[in-house]
Structure formats: structure tokens, C-alpha cells
Amino acid sequence: MRNIIFTIIVIIGAGLAIYIGFISKSKDKPLRYLPYYGNHEIKPSMSGEGIDTIYKSISNFSFIDQKGKIVTQDNFKDKIYVADYFFCTCKSICPIMSEQLERVAAQFKDDEEIKFISHTVNPEYDSVNVLADYAAAHHAIYGQWYLVTGNKKELYDLARDSYMLDASEGDGGEDDFIHTQNFALIDKDRHIRGYYDGTNPKEIDLLINDIRLLKKEYSSKATN
Questions:
Q1: Amino acid 164: pLDDT
Q2: Where along the chain do its domains lie?
Q3: Contacts 24+ apart (CB under 8 A), 37-46
Q4: Mapped to the 3 state alphabet, what secondary structure does the chain carry?
Q5: What is the value of pTM for the model shown?
Q6: Could you report how far apart the first and last alpha carbons of the chain are, in Å?
Q7: How do residues 49-92 score in pLDDT, each as one tens digit?
Q8: Measured between alpha carbons, how far is 119 from 205 in angstroms, rounded to an integer?
Q9: Out of 10, 22, 79, 132, which could bridge 66 as a Cys pair, Cβ 3.0 to 4.6 Å?
Q10: How far apart (Å, rounded) are the C-alpha atoms in residues 55 and 101?
Q11: pLDDT one-digit tens code per residue, 194-205
Q12: Is the pLDDT of residue 25 over 50?
């Protein structure tokens, strides 16, 4: 009987040691950094020592949100955010995208570090009141999730030139139209760090995970 008890104790002890070792190894595991998207430049550092890599960054912008207030890049200063394009009367991919973005927003409901911005591609119809109704339908918390309208050309130029969410050519004119299901993940330095299919739940799970990874990246930099 004593041999049986001893054997059980040894097995439990070995299992505990393996578990503790696994946890310790997980803590020491190097942080996985997200890639940067878009062109970049290599330049001599300002200090004159070494080189700096200059990554593509999101241009300045100014739009009107669902409350009729101006939203600029300053609303996202030192924030990680997700950007997408939609329109309120869309019956195909947009409702799915908005539901998925609502799911992401719910994961970070009380996290002031994370924000969202949805740009309309149909500013002629999507007025402030229309955006307000759409925001309410998707439980968008004001101050965390902005739905914006504005000058069509400026909206479209930002989509193509900054977020690179649409590869088609266009001038933002009356016949121009963007219809993309992709979300862009933007870091605190206004760099693009990921793209995700807003209609694919698995891609959205990945987005949620990548936001957490990006938070860890900044946390790691702060402690070094």
C-alpha cells in the first residue's frame, strides 16, 4: 500500500514539475511582433549613430462623427485602433462587418487604449443622423467607436493611399465607389500592423488576438 501511495506522490510531483516548467518557459518565450505593412525607408538616425526604419503612416484627417463633432487623428493619439469602410444602406457585407466589429469592441469595452473608426463610402446619404442610428443599432460606445462622414474624395483618398484598403483606382467622384470587407489594425504610431477579413469570424478572432499582442508590444517597450 505504501508503494502505491509513494508512486502516486511521485507521479503528482513529476506532473507539477512539468507544469511549473511549462509556465516558466511560456513566460520566457519571446514576444511575437506583428509585421508592418506598406513601403518603408531606411535613413540615418537623428543621432548619427546607426539607421532608422521609417514605416508608412496614416495621413492626417478630419471628418464628422455620429454626434456631429469633428474627428481627427488627434482622437487616436497614443491609441491602437481598427479602421474600416462601410455604408449604412448596404445589405451584403457591411451588416456582417459591423456585427463583427461590434464583437471586437465588446472585447475591449473598458479599454481606453483601443478605439475604432468606420468611414462611410456613401457620404451623400450617410448623414450625421443616419450614422447615429446605425451606431445605436450596433451598440457603438461614443468615444470608443466613431462612425464618420465627410468629403468623399478625402474619405476615398485615405482608404486607398493611407489605409491601403482598396486597390482600385478612382478619383472620389460621383461614379467612384469603394466596397471592401477588410479591417486595418493601426498602432499608436499610426503604422499599419494587420489586415483582416471583416466577414470571417476566424479572422476577427485573429484580430482580437493581434490587438492584445500589440498591447503587449507597447507594454514591453515601456518597461525596457
A1: 97
A2: 1-30, 40-223
A3: 37/164, 37/191, 37/192, 37/193, 37/194, 37/195, 38/164, 38/191, 38/192
A4: CHHHHHHHHHHHHHHHHHHHHHHHHHHHCCCCCCCCCCCEEEEECCCCCCEEEEECECCCCEEECCCCCEEEHHHHCCCEEEEEEECCCCCCHHHHHHHHHHHHHHHCCCCCCEEEEEEECCCCCCCHHHHHHHHHHCCCCCCCEEEEECCHHHHHHHHHHHCCCCCCCCCCCCCCCCCCCEEEEECCCCEEEEEEECCCHHHHHHHHHHHHHHHHHHHHHHHC
A5: 0.84
A6: 54
A7: 666 778 889 999 999 999 999 999 999 999 999 999 999 999 99
A8: 22
A9: 132
A10: 26
A11: 999 999 999 999
A12: no
Rg over CA atoms, the chain: 23
pLDDT at 8: 44
CA distance 79 to 64: 19
Please answer whether residues 208 and 107 qualify as being in contact, where contact means their C-beta atoms are separated by less than 8 angstroms.
yes
| Four-residue CA torsion sign, 169, 174, 175, 177 | positive
Chain mean pLDDT for the chain: 88
31: Cα separation from own chain's centroid: 19
C-alpha cell at 117: 473608426
* Spacing of C-alpha 150 from chain mean position: 22
> Is the CATH number of domain 40-223 3.20.110.20?
no
Q: Calculate ∠ Cα 99-164-106, nearest 5°.
A: 25
- What whole-number distance in Å separates Cα of residue 165 and Cα of residue 85? 8
